[in-house]
Amino acid sequence: MDRELFAYSPIMHRPKLRWPNGARVALWVVPNIEHYEYLPKFVRTRDPWPRSPHPDVLGYAHRDYGNRVGLWRLFDVTDALGIRCTVSLSMSVIQHYPAILEAMEKRGWEYMSHGIYNTRYHWDFTEDEERAAMLESHAIHERLTGRRMRGWFSPAITNTLNTFDLAAECGYDYTADLYQDDQPWPLNVRSGKLLSMPYTVELNDALVYRRGEEGEEFARQIRDHFDTVYAEGADQGRVMCIALHPYWVGQPHRIGPFRRVMEYILSHPGVWLATGGEIADWFNANHLPLIQSHLAAREAANG
Which residues of 29-54 are buried (b: 16+ CB within 10 A; e: fewer)? Predict the structure, then answer.
């Protein structure tokens, strides 16, 4: 690349990040509410349904279970615990399933674009194609909610070398396409500004369950992760993300362990349960100037 995407700074050498009301951890819970096409319209470098020949009824039906059943089971848990989520959203969901949009709107959930369909990858997209997908996401969101969309997360993590520049140019405030830090971090884009928001492929139910681990093990990993960042957060604030997929966590044998570990986390003081947009706004207003001064001083010292 022509420039460094994000400056290097060890977390212990940075200005101290302080969350609102002295919170140690900013926690955002991110359900991936996705739509997979039964017969994808096009395939480029990756087959969305590797169990060919199409249609892959098993793969499609497993994912469709999330929108039919699993999500509604997850709603019960988040309602009971007062969790307002940030949805990694296939924009086609709110076009095809108005009941899901109505349920999320009722709860005041925030959405970040996860592309149009999770079977339409961006690898090998031209810059114009990728820009068009980002702008289409904005248009769908604004038409159906009346609000501006804040975050971008490439479908199936198929970002390109143009993704971050385009996200900034298309008016997104943050991206979940990078996993390089436990704090938000400014990205060097060709115009505008963009934050990298800490997402996770570690506390991500789809990856955990595909490794053959189950609900109690996933809950243990969430608890261990939280215990570590909560202790560290007394000195230097942290972001913790829990990434979910209703077709995984919403299964009857998995929802219970997830609820219990969330009860454990929320029993602690100093946990700021926030959305991606809320974290970005607070960081930009209160901490970004300190980080910019810190990086400028480091650059000057290094000549």
Answer: bbbbbbbbbeebeeeeeeebbeeeeb
The number of beta carbons lying within 10 Å of the beta carbon of residue 106 is 10
Q: Alpha helices, DSSP H only, in 214-275?
A: 215-232, 246-249, 252-266
Model confidence, pTM: 0.95
Q: Which of 101, 108, 32 is nearest to 70 (CA)?
A: 32
Q: Which residue has the tokens 């959305």?
A: 275
Q: Which of these CATH numbers, 3.60.15.10, 3.20.20.370, 3.30.750.200, 3.30.43.10, describes 28-301?
A: 3.20.20.370
* pLDDT tens digits along 62-98: 999 999 999 999 999 999 999 999 999 999 999 999 9
